Amino acid sequence: MRHNRRGEHIIRLDGVGLRYGLGPEVLRDISFALPSGSFHFLTGSSGAGKSSLLRLMYLGLRPTRGRVMLFDKDIALTKRYELPALRRRIGVVFQDFRLLDHLSAMDNVALPLRVRGVKEAEVRKHVPELLNWVGLADQINAKPPTLSGGQKQRVAIARAVIGRPDLLLADEPTGNVDDHIAMRLLHLFEELNRLGTTVLIATHNQGLIDRFPQHPRLHLERGTVYEAEEVPA
Amino acid sequence: MKLGRHSDLPLKGDATGRFLPWLVALMVYLSAVSLAGVFVLNGLVRSWDHDVSGTLTVQVQPVPGEAGEALTDERVRQAVELMRRTPGVLAARPLDKKQILALLEPWLGNTDVVKDLPLPRLIDVTIDADSNLDLVSLADRLSRSVQGATLDDHRIWLSRLINLSRTTEWVAIAILVLIGCVTSATVIYATRTSMAVHRGVIEVLHLIGAHDDYIARQFADRSFALGFAGGLIGLALAVPSLTAIGWAARRIEGGFLPSLSLPVSGWVMIGLLPVAAATLSMLTARLAVHATLARMP
Domain total for chain B? Predict the structure, then answer.
């Protein structure tokens, strides 16, 4: 179910800052918004805070200051029991995949559906279809430790998109695959985007970004986000 | 059936699965022994309560000398007569020498050596428990009317025995509560250890939108299964022990001790201990997981 019409903001950060413990602020004065149905790349040098920013956006962290509005809800004011419903509307591709090693590729991808209580017959219909689409039809029963880096990444992507999320956040989703697979995965993200999912992809891969010039770029530098054209010299 | 539900967490290989059942088994064993103690003591207290409220004993000192036997018989007759005339007394029955010797047998063994001694004569008096019989004035009247006769009210020493039994009963209940607390603490420790081991999996489930209860339920199911398995082991060890204690107690009964057998309700309660242990483990694990997850963002 889509709650946000195209043109409204699906996520908005206002003056957000983040520090770990008593350390320095790793993110500061972050203010930007992703319109519903948009497709953005997030760039920035290694250690600039891309993963921390994504963690804030998928509710893996709370900001130490500022306001995060997600699906029109102020996260600071949202009751804890309401958060799972918001998280279910977000698909995340973690940089380190975070697959569950004791589960097969099938069961890993099925997790978001099972968590929502989707009937097993539906799970067994949709998950193999998607695994086939990402080129892993023959690895459906394989467990992550037996998969290559690229295969794990595709399982992680399949898990992120199986629930048709309203917001897809991907941290270096093409870091371990060859160009051909990378393009195929980007086309999958675009397809999802056409169906209404808002997409934000954090990546180092400048070559890949250049192939999709139609998508705007956010750049993270010195803990702050800039629109690509306003990055300071 | 709870035990077969789907689980995303690899809890089956956990180290907790190896020690928790044995710990619960020990706890259930101790609980069964304590519970049996509570039931047996409760039965004793009840029977003593009944004795205290329902009976008195009149003791008539034997008269020495050749004519003493006849005189003693006459005093016994007078005392029985007096007791029977007293309102609130339902029956007064003098015990013959054979019965008196039978009462002494558990303490003195072979009574052949004492049967020729001048023994006090006893009258078993049954009173109406609801009547407000004034025992002090009755004892006074008896000792004035019949020489050498005294009224033995069991209440004082029996009430002390009952107090002791009641105290022991409460101690046994306190032990049961403590066993429950120790079991809960162990389950909390085991659950937290398991959560620490599987922190990565829990985080993934949490981030893809699992409700806390979805995760807690998986730990709770596992705890229930381990608790139940441990409970059955404990029960399997407790039943032969209790049966052996019961058998040994029956051998020394025969007037010296009241019945020490465990009533059916006691066996039923002990039979339910594995379910109680499993339920306690399940609820404790569930609460422990909720408490830990509440600290996640």
Answer: 2
